[in-house]
Specification:
single chain; 366 residues; alpha/beta; 14 helices
Length: 366
């Protein structure tokens, strides 16, 4: 997202810019630093992140009270832009902790040496499949699945079963129904490309995309345009008279449609094709050259603490990575569990990402 993560509902709710972290949660909180300067005695720890980061105010206040640190967050655009700025300022970082690098960009961050190793206190509580860096330069914080979503009403009206797999999407009954994002300009667009690489391999994904193109796939620049303008199943898409009942979005999008529905529907109007998904894992790391190393370590510990992990789903619409964190009812009732998402090793992505995107662009867009 980004990442992120980042994810569908954040586009509706997240604040932008530089703010104190405690002001990110409920929407009615006020920036503690607005119009003033920090006390020389204050212990400040700064989190550099993407625009979609959010947290409930009371959860943050409790951490601040227990730790003695005042937490500030520097929001820096999408995950890729934020990471680029940290690479450019390597050794003299803008903050103490970076949150928002995911497995599609992880090797780039590690190869550029922007993080200092730190083994978080609760790392043993993180599901081991998400611990991708054995040197602990980064700590897993959340996961999200990029998946094709479908408009339930459209398929019910047409009496057509909605697609469930990548293979389904190239069948004639789904011709001219799918809209996706540009893999060169969009995180979900790139994730969907990687899903095809994971499924069909480095030798087969191009043939798959040739079939998708022949079946009328539409490509737009980003998620906002795809989901809130072209997709017929979202609230925004309905207002915009979108006519594509299939869209690349997230597995968490149906719960978001329920949460922000006016009035709130009893059932999500959209579904998820669980055989089309690519799993993103998002990480945080202690920045090399951080001014407040101890505060940074405490902040990383907080991010995988139970309270933050259980707060994330309704704040950033992502899934926790720790074994003891519970999902809210909105997720368990209206969300889906993706049992077998596609994955591509971070080092393979790092080695091939640019050439895959270039080949995809030449094949699908030009």
């Amino acid at each position: 997202m980004s990442t992120t993560k980042k994810i569908a509902g954040v586009a509706l709710a997240a604040a932008l810019g530089v703010t104190t972290l405690s002001a990110c949660g409920g929407g009615d909180a006020k920036d503690k630093s607005a119009g003033g300067t920090e006390s020389p005695k204050s212990k400040t720890v700064t989190l550099v992140t993407h625009d979609s980061f959010n947290v409930t105010e009371s959860v943050l206040k409790e951490f601040e009270q227990e730790s003695g640190y005042t937490v500030k967050v520097l929001k820096s655009g999408d995950a890729g832009a934020a990471l680029n700025q940290e690479i450019l300022t390597k050794g003299s970082p803008r903050g103490d902790v970076f949150f928002g690098v995911d497995n599609t960009l992880l090797s780039r961050a590690l190869d550029n040496g922007i993080f200092t190793p730190y083994e978080a206190k609760r790392l043993a509580d993180v599901k081991p499949e998400y611990v991708l860096d054995k040197q602990h330069r980064v700590t897993p914080i959340d996961t999200g699945d990029i998946c094709v979503n479908y408009d339930k009403a459209y398929f019910a009206d047409k009496k057509i079963a909605p697609p469930q797999t990548l293979d389904d999407l190239v069948k004639p009954e789904y011709k001219n129904l799918l809209v996706t994002e540009n893999a060169a300009t969009s995180s979900p667009g790139l994730g969907f490309l990687l899903a095809s690489v994971g499924k069909y391999g480095e030798d087969g994904w191009k043939d798959y995309w040739s079939k998708l193109k022949a079946n009328g796939v539409e490509v737009v620049d980003g998620w906002e345009q795809a989901y809130n303008e072209r997709f017929s199943g979202s609230a925004g898409g309905k207002k915009a008279k979108g006519d594509r009942p299939l869209v690349v979005s997230y597995a968490s999008s149906p719960p978001v449609e329920v949460l922000y529905g006016e009035p709130q529907p009893a059932e999500a109007p959209t579904g998820v094709a669980t055989g089309t998904c690519f799993r993103q894992v998002e990480f945080a790391g202690l920045l090399k050259g951080a001014k407040n190393t101890e505060g940074g370590k405490a902040l990383v510990d907080f991010l995988i603490g139970k309270k933050f992990q259980e707060d994330m789903p309704l704040q950033m619409f992502v899934n926790p990575v720790t074994k003891d964190a519970s999902l809210p009812e909105l997720f368990t009732k209206h969300g889906v569990v993706v049992e077998k998402p596609e994955n591509v090793a971070p080092e393979t992505i790092a080695k091939n990402r640019d050439q895959w995107v270039s080949a995809w662009t030449a094949l699908v867009v030009k």
